[in-house]
Amino acid sequence: MARRALTVGVPLVDPAGGDLLHECSDLGRFYGNGGDLRSAVVVDAGMQPGLTGLIVRALLARASSTPRSVGLWHGGLGVIPKGSAQDLLLGTSTGGGTPHARRHAHRVVPFSGGGRHLPPNVPPTATATPILTEEINRICSAQRIPDAVEYQIINGEHVAEVARYYAASPILLGDEERMQEAVHRLQNAARVDCISHHPSYTLHAWAGDDELIVTTDAPFTLTAEVSALTTIALLEGRVDSAVLPFDEAVDPTWVFSRLRTLPSVTITGNSWYETGESPPDGTSCDMEEGEIL
Q: What is the reported pTM?
C-alpha cells in the first residue's frame, strides 16, 4: 500500500515497521522527482512502535536539558493476535529482530524489579523482556542520550510460562509448523490468563526525573485511535509531505490531548493532562472513542 500510495500521490497511514519506512524513502526519492515527495506517507502509526516512540519524544520535548537516561516499560494482560504472538516468539526464541519492531538482544527473564519506574498493577508472576526497539534507539541516538532501557511486560502467568519455554527451546527461522503450534499455545495461554483478570495495557516512560504513563483497558482501541489521529493530522495539514515515522510526523502534545478524552485511557505524569486544562495549542478535545473526523 505504501508503495502504491507513493506512485499515485495520496496520503497513507500504515502501522508498519522500520524496513518499510526505509523502502518508502527510497521509492519516494525515485518517484518524487529528486527527493521532492508528492505524498505524505506515515508508517509506525500504531501503538507499538508508534506510540512508544511518541511518549519518549513527548518527555524529551519538555525536558530543560538532555537527560542522561531514558526508559520505557510497556505491556499488560489481554488476548494476543497472531502477528503479535509471532513477534513475541521470534524475539524470545532467536534474540534477533522481529518483523515489525526490530528488537535486539532480548530474553525472557523472571520479573525481579522493584524500582519506582515499574508500571502499576504488575503481578509478582509477571515477566519482563529486555528489548531495544528501533524507534527508541533512533531517538536516543539522535539526542546523544547515553543510557536507554526498554522492557516489554507480560502480565499473564500462563503466557509467561509459554514464552519461557520457547526462550529455552528456540524456534528455528523457517520452521512454520512449530511456529504455528507455538502461536496456538500462546494465544490459548492468553485466553486462560484473561478468565479471571481484567485486560489492561500500560506504557510507562521516563526521561531523567520526569515520567509519563498511559494506561488502558482497551489496547486495540488505543491502537486504532492512534492511527485515526494520524489520519486526522494528515487531513488537517499537520504533517509535512515526507516519509516519516509517527513520532516525527505529529505533535506529541496534540496527540496526548486527544487521547486523554477517551473513556478507556488514563494519562498521568503531566499536570495539564491530569487537571483537564485546555492543551497548550488550543486543540479541541471532543473526539469520541472510535470517531474519525
A: 0.72
Res 63 pLDDT > 60? yes
- Please count the structural domains in the chain: 2
Q: Which three cell numbers stand for residue 116?
A: 519506582
The C-alpha cell at 182 is 507455538
Please report the pLDDT score of residue 223 as a whole number.
Answer: 79
3 state SS of 261: coil
In a domain, 286, yes or no: no
Residues 138 and 155 in one domain: yes
Residue of higher predicted confidence among 121 and 239: 239
- Please check whether residue 169 lies inside any domain of the structure: yes
Which of the pair, 81 or 279, is modelled with greater confidence? Answer: 81
Shared domain check, 118 and 11? no
Answer for the pair 147, 126: CB distance below 8 angstroms, yes or no.
Answer: no
Give the E-state strand segments of the chain in sequence order. 12-14, 41-43, 69-77, 109-110, 127-130, 147-154, 200-207, 210-216, 243-245, 265-268
- Report yes or no: 127 and 160 within 8 Å, Cβ to Cβ: yes
User: For residue 111, what pLDDT is reported?
Assistant: 35
Using one digit for the tens of pLDDT, what is the confidence trace for 30-45? 554 444 455 566 665 6
Measure the CA–CA gap between 249 and 239, rounded to whole angstroms.
6
CA atoms of 95 and 103, how far apart (whole Å): 8
Using alpha carbons, select from 225, 239, 240 the residue that is nearest to residue 285: 225
E strands, 156-209, are: 200-207
DSSP label at 74?
A: E
